[in-house]
């Protein structure tokens, strides 16, 4: 169904992709030939009609015919004036385009937030109001309020879905737990509701509402579409520098300081629980999954064993082994130190072949700063103050923010983080670290499916990635 004049364009499609500079003039010649044929065809038709007895050309036909290009008129050769091909743009041009795109995005967002008459569009939840708690008679009532968009993540007893509010068309994340499957997970979700209801911080995931039916619990939170911070750092096209790491670590420490000021401890800081709000370069960090968090009292130890094995603080492992009586909020700063180490060096220094070996390395605090990395001395010193076996010697969030490495006036380090092997910069190591984590999830997912079969063993092994409460 293509018109006849499109044949030369389709025939040389590959040439157009591979040699645009040579192809553009030839395309112009093809189009010129098309116009010539159209003119001649129109002229021949007009002359043929003129030879008919009694034919008289109308003024409209004469005007239309005269508007066609005449091939006999002189035309400048296209080969002498090829279309200039832009090779690159200056930094100023790119900055101007970026500012223009951001202004346009802000204008589009403002237009989307306004209704047809220019008034603010109705929102599903009051952003400054209290968290809504709603009891429903059945699950279909929840799905009358929201529509299922896609499944973001799935655990053994719960799943996280992207949902859309049917009235306002806003997008949210909904964490859904089947109450019939596990009592412990219900406690986790109720605790997460209590934590998020008390926390209002730009870098902690925001809870808007909780719904309960006889069968399920639903937590509706803001939607973070940017994925994990670690995956972004290991895969995007930007230069991966120490300045980037410093910025992200500062943000995480400030969020932890806020949590501790509210007498809340996270207890499960790890790469999977540090997300980005969206896919833009200016995306905000969002700390998620507060199912293991709890409120604490000063000078009163916590005793519940929880977290993820490779990221446990030494006092958690010792408490599990009965060597000490409990632990305090300092376990979060151990998690911050590990996150900083992984971002700077691209691997977890305590990861071993088996869980026991990993726990032994953690309790003995067997780690060191690797050689051959161009990480600054102040960054190494910062990590050393956090990955301490004795929680009393570990930096608090307040002390960490005052360290010279996080000083806003510290000397910049814009260069890429490198190792002694030029073919394996830290960005490549971080990509391999992320790939190994994904592979581990796939293997454990298959193990869980087998463990759920009554013939294949103890179903408790399905949660082998977390230390249960």
Mean pLDDT: 81
Which fold name is given in CATH as the topology of the largest domain? Transferase(Phosphotransferase), domain 1
- The total beta strand count reads 12
- Text of the CATH class of the largest domain: Mainly Alpha
Structural class: alpha+beta
CATH superfamily of the largest domain: Transferase(Phosphotransferase) domain 1
Number of domains as seen in the coordinates: 2
Helix tally equals 15
Helical percentage = 40-55%
Give me the CATH architecture of the largest domain, please.
Orthogonal Bundle
Shape: globular
Note the run of SSEs as H and E.
HHHHHEHEEEHEEHHEEEEEHHHHHHE
Percentage of β-strand residues: 5-15%
Distance between the termini: 67 Å
Biggest beta sheet attributes: 6 strands, mixed
Strand order of the largest sheet: 1-5-6-4-3-2
Low-confidence stretches: 75-89, 446-466
Q: If you compute it from the alpha carbons, what radius of gyration comes out, rounded to the nearest whole angstrom?
A: 32 Å
Biased composition (Low complexity): 101-114
Region (Disordered): 38-125, 444-469
Family: Belongs to the protein kinase superfamily.
Keywords: ATP-binding, Kinase, Nucleotide-binding, Serine/threonine-protein kinase, Transferase
């Amino acid at each position: 169904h293509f018109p006849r004049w499109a044949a030369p364009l389709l025939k040389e499609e590959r040439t157009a992709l591979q040699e645009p500079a040579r192809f553009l003039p030839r395309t112009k010649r093809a189009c010129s030939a098309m116009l010539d044929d159209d003119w001649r065809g129109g002229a021949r038709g007009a002359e043929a009609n003129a030879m008919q007895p009694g034919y008289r050309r109308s003024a409209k036909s004469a005007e239309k015919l005269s508007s066609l290009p005449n091939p006999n008129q002189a035309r400048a050769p296209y080969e002498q004036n090829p279309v200039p091909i832009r090779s690159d743009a200056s930094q100023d041009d790119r900055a101007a385009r970026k500012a223009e795109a951001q202004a346009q995005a802000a204008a589009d967002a403002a237009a989307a937030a306004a209704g047809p008459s220019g008034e603010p569009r109705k929102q599903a939840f009051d952003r400054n109001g209290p968290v809504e708690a709603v009891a429903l008679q059945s699950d279909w009532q929840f799905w009358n309020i929201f529509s299922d968009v896609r499944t973001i993540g799935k655990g053994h007893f719960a799943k996280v879905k992207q949902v859309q509010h049917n009235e306002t068309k806003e997008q949210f994340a909904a964490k859904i737990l089947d109450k019939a499957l596990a009592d412990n997970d219900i406690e986790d979700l109720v605790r997460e509701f209590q934590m998020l209801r008390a926390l209002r911080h730009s870098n902690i995931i925001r809870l808007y509402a909780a719904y309960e039916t006889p069968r399920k619990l639903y937590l509706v939170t803001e939607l973070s579409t940017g994925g994990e911070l670690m995956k972004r750092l290991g895969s995007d096209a930007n230069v991966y520098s120490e300045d980037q790491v410093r910025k992200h670590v500062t943000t995480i420490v400030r969020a932890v300081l806020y949590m501790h000021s509210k007498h809340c401890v996270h207890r499960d800081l790890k790469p999977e629980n540090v997300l980005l709000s969206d896919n833009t370069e200016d995306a905000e960090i969002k700390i998620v999954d507060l199912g293991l968090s709890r409120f604490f009292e000063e000078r009163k130890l916590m005793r519940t064993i929880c977290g993820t094995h490779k990221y446990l603080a030494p006092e958690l492992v010792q408490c599990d082994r009965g060597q000490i009586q409990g632990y305090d909020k300092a376990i979060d700063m151990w998690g911050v130190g590990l996150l900083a180490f992984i971002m700077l060096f691209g691997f977890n220094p305590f990861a071993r072949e088996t869980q026991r070996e990993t726990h032994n390395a953690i309790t003995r605090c067997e780690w060191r700063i690797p050689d051959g990395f161009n990480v600054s001395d102040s960054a190494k010193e910062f990590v050393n103050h956090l990955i301490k076996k004795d929680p009393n010697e570990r930096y608090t969030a307040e002390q960490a923010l005052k360290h010279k490495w996080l000083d806003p006036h510290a000397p910049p380090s814009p260069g890429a983080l490198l190792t002694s092997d030029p073919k394996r910069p830290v960005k490549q190591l971080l990509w391999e670290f992320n790939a190994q984590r994904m592979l581990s999830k796939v293997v454990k997912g298959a193990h869980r499916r087998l463990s759920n079969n009554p013939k294949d063993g103890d179903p408790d092994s399905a949660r082998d990635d977390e230390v249960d409460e």
